[in-house]
């Protein structure tokens, strides 16, 4: 059973990207956590109730639309929860490939349009979420703003090369989260801001790239969500601005 006891109260949790592989598993596990009062899930395509979700107390769930490529949609989403004091925000959205986008195997594949789209989605959008949702976050006691990053965003860990846009977008996200941790200390002294690497997880995002992943290193979304919520429960203020893997270890920039 997931515990978020370190927050010390019944939580209001927000998941941005509740329709995704990891996002929907996070929503299901937050709903089942006795420390959570309400889960507000935002998504572009709506939340579907899968097996895991169907066992959860759905009365604790609220769902709203959001399109992270539009700042006005992000602002509308935040305006829609203006009555709520939020304890935990998890941004679980992201893009690696789409109909028009492939992660680059070499420099020749780099293109301005796909680079901009990946940067906007993976780096800028989580910060626009922070911009519009931070005023709704609790100002005293533990509160947490995390965004799903990726180990490939670590500059010092880059041994394989490739994936220019995705790597750059996650490195940029990590810097933006660090910068936010510095600024938010003034208005929300106890807020913890962090990036989280979920491991390699069996979702639509990783599906085309799973061939060389050892089966024991490919997590189910539910397994990864459990690990991530454990990491969130263990975070304290000294961790703010950092990036942490699914097992709690810090990832160097
Ligand atoms: N899976 C892995 O192995 C892995 C590894 C390292 C890091 N990560 C990171 O973990 C995060 C989640 O990945 P995942 O594997 O769960 O991917 P996923 O299943 O493909 O989910 C991606 C999510 O992003 C949402 N999204 C995309 N464009 C959007 C937009 N314009 N507005 C609102 N939502 C949008 C999708 O919403 P719709 O479904 O509504 O389109 C979906 O909820 C990403 O940041 C990814 O980089 C994943």
Automatic annotation (TrEMBL):
Pfam family, one: adh_short
Cellular-component GO terms for this entry: cytoplasm
Top-level division of the source organism's lineage: Bacteria
Gene Ontology molecular function terms on file: oxidoreductase activity
Protein name, UniProt field: SDR family NAD(P)-dependent oxidoreductase
């Amino acid at each position: 059973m997931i515990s978020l006891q370190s927050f010390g109260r019944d939580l209001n949790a927000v998941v941005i990207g509740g329709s995704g592989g990891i996002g929907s598993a996070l929503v299901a596990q937050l709903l089942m956590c006795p420390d959570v009062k309400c889960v507000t899930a935002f998504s572009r395509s709506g939340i579907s109730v899968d097996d895991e979700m169907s066992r959860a107390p759905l009365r604790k769930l609220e769902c709203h639309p959001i399109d992270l490529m539009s700042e006005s949609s992000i602002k509308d989403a935040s305006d829609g929860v203006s009555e709520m004091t939020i304890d935990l925000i998890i941004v679980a959205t992201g893009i690696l490939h789409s109909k028009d986008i492939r992660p680059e195997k070499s420099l020749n594949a780099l293109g301005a349009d796909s680079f901009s789209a990946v940067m906007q989605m993976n780096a800028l959008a989580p910060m626009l979420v922070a911009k519009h949702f931070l005023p709704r976050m609790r100002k005293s006691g533990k509160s947490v703003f995390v965004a799903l990053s990726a180990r490939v965003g670590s500059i010092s860990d880059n041994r394989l090369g490739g994936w220019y846009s995705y790597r750059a977008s996650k490195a940029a996200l990590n810097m933006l989260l660090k910068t936010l941790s510095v600024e938010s200390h003034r208005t929300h002294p106890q807020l913890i801001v962090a990036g989280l690497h979920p491991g390699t997880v069996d979702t639509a995002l990783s599906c085309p790239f799973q061939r060389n992943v050892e089966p024991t290193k490919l997590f189910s979304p539910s397994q990864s969500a459990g690990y991530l919520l454990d990491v969130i429960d263990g975070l304290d203020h000294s961790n703010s601005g950092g990036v942490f893997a699914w097992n709690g270890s810090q990832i160097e920039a």
